[in-house]
Amino acid sequence: MPLLPTQDFQGQSLVRIGDADDFLLLAPQYGGRLVRWVHRGDDILYWPDNADWSRPAKVRGGNPLLFPFIGRHFVDGAAGQWRDRQGAVHTLAQHGFARDLPFEVGAIDAAGSITMTLRDSAQTRPGFPYDFVFDVVYALLPDGMEVTLRTTNTGNQPLPCYPGHHFYFALPQAQRAASTLALPPADRVRQLPDGAPGPAEAGEPAYRLDDPHLQDTYHVFRGAAGAMLSMPARTVAFELEVADSVRWHAVTTWSESEQSDFYCVEPWVGLPDAVHHGQGLRWLAPGESESAVCRLRVSG
Confidence band (pLDDT; 50, 70, 90) for 3? Predict the structure, then answer.
């Protein structure tokens, strides 16, 4: 393992890459979580002052990694279960297991990039009986950062997956009405109680973040993918049309409550329960590897 540049934060030893004004703090030991992203001295992501590090996967903040599936999956109305091609039913928590497990640190450049890796193990196989390597690469850019989610099928059977992000952007709740999300042509979809995607409604080109249409909603791209989050302090542009990246199927918008000082905009490769309905489901052949790449560019 390479010598890691670390920083103490809330009593935890986190990995730090970057410089004094632009840096990332990451917790490989806690699900590969991106805890802080500081750009030109400002925190872009939310992290609570009273975070419970005894249950880091449950902390609302940073960027939890969602793998192998995002969202909730159902079998015969029971949440947390999915059925494979052979008809066997497996138990798997919402958003998968990556955010609950330690990652190894691979390549690291203290000035601006890190690769973290999760491999199949005795902890992953009961709910996901496949051999895999899941690499996450964070790289700082002059005006933001790039994140790569790379999945490799190291087994001898086709592997299903649809990973994603869960970015918690720092936004005081009083500023929601003054903040907007602009999207390319997309349909609004919500998950039905049985797990299936509900009927699609034509989306708007832009929304205020206090619009109830956004809560727990999937914005399914009709063509080109992307988003622009405009807040009083800054704008974050999501570049989701990146060379050599698989297609991003949707972004999801969510916040815990109207009083929360964060707002989530989450690029997802597929929709929840895609392993059953197929919308965004990826199948990797044995030996195949593919990457989902997004760039977040900050201005203001």
Answer: confident
Contact yes or no for 133/152 (Cβ under 8 A):
yes
pLDDT tens per residue across span 81-95: 999 999 999 999 999
Whether 1 shows a pLDDT value over 60: the answer reads: no
Cβ pair 202, 213 in contact under 8 A = no
Q: Do the bridges between strand 132-141 and strand 113-119 make them parallel or antiparallel, or are there none, so unpaired?
A: antiparallel
Domain annotation for the chain: domains and CATH numbers: 6-299 (2.70.98.10)
Q: Is 276 helix (H, G, I), strand (E, B) or coil?
A: helix
Identify the residue whose tokens are 């909603």: 217
Rounded to two decimals, what is the model's pTM?
0.97
Residue at token pair 């992307």: 226
Task: Give, in order, the Cα–Cα distances in Å from 219 to each of 159, 203, 208, 294.
Answer: 26, 7, 15, 16
Contact of 129 with 276, CB cutoff 8 Å: no
User: Cβ atoms within 10 A of the Cβ of 81, count?
Assistant: 17
The helix (run of H) or strand (run of E) holding residue 274 is: helix 274-277
Q: Which long-range contacts (CB under 8 A, 24 or more apart) does 11-17 make?
A: 11/53, 12/53, 15/105, 15/108, 15/114, 16/110, 17/108, 17/109, 17/110, 17/111, 17/112, 17/113, 17/114, 17/138, 17/140
Exposed / middle / buried, residue 62 (Cβ in 10 Å: 0-12, 13-18, 19+) = buried
Chain centroid offset of residue 264 CA: 10
